Every structure is written in C-alpha cells, then in structure tokens.
Amino acid sequence: MTKYSSEFKVKLVNEYFDGQISILGLSKKYGMPSKSPIYYWVHEAEANGLNYLITKKSHKDYSQDFKLSVIEYYKLHKISRLDTAIYFKISPSQVNSWIYRYNHYGVIGLRRRPRGRRPLMAKKKKKQTRLNSTKEEKY
C-alpha cells in the first residue's frame, strides 16, 4: 500500500510547477516530514510526465542481467541513484537495494531468491512398492 495517493502527488507537483511555492514550502504546507518524496515526484514528472506518478499495482521480477545493467549504468555515468531510477523507470529504493547487495555480495547477490517459507522438515522418500524383475524375467 502506498503512503501517498496518486491524486495527492499530482496536486503537489502541479503546485510546484505553477511557480508559487518551493519544494520545502510544499512539505511544510502539507505537514510532510521530509522534502525528498516531493523532490523525487517533481523530477519523475519532468522526465516521464505526470501520468507516471500514478501508482503501479503490479509486482515485477527483474532478471539478474537487468539489475547488473542498472548498476553498470549508475557507475559508468556517475549520476545519482535517483536519476538512475528515473532513467530505468523503477523505484529508487530498488536501485539502492541492488547497489548495496552488489557491493556486499557481488553478482551472486543479484540472483533471484526463492519466495516463501522454507519447510521445517525434509520430505520422506516414498517406499518402492514395485518388485524388481529378475534376470530371467528380463530375458
């Protein structure tokens, strides 16, 4: 569940684009604890348009190659993580997470991890009920 609705995001970005109030002024006006979400929304709207501020409802899995290409782009161009996220149209928290895992675990840290809870007990092998055939029967 998102903390701020899409309508609220668009409203704040439009107020900023009108030029009457700064990002810090908007955060104080609406009682937000930080100005960074508004900063992100404004840059995202400038790069991709206001329609991109609408929250996405689907979960997407990214391949190890895609994650590696995001990290390589970030290191090669020496730009901020926010700008990298906007370029690839993903969340900045995903970029932060992937860079952290890459720096601590290497390429292996970018692999997909199995979902769900591990089983508590190992599954027992089924007993073989079928009789083995003898050499004479095989002949």
Automatic annotation (TrEMBL):
Residues 117-139 are annotated as: Disordered. One of its GO terms (molecular function) is sequence-specific DNA binding. Pfam families: HTH_28 (PF13518). Residues 117-129 have a biased composition (Basic residues). InterPro entries: InsJ-like_HTH, IS150/IS1296_orfA-like, Trp_repressor/repl_initiator, WH-like_DNA-bd_sf. Residues 66-118 form the Insertion element IS150 protein InsJ-like helix-turn-helix domain. Belongs to the IS150/IS1296 orfA family. PANTHER family: INSERTION ELEMENT IS150 PROTEIN INSJ (PTHR33795:SF1). This is Insertion element IS150 protein InsJ-like helix-turn-helix domain-containing protein. It comes from Companilactobacillus bobalius DSM 19674. The lineage of its organism: Bacteria, Bacillati, Bacillota, Bacilli, Lactobacillales.
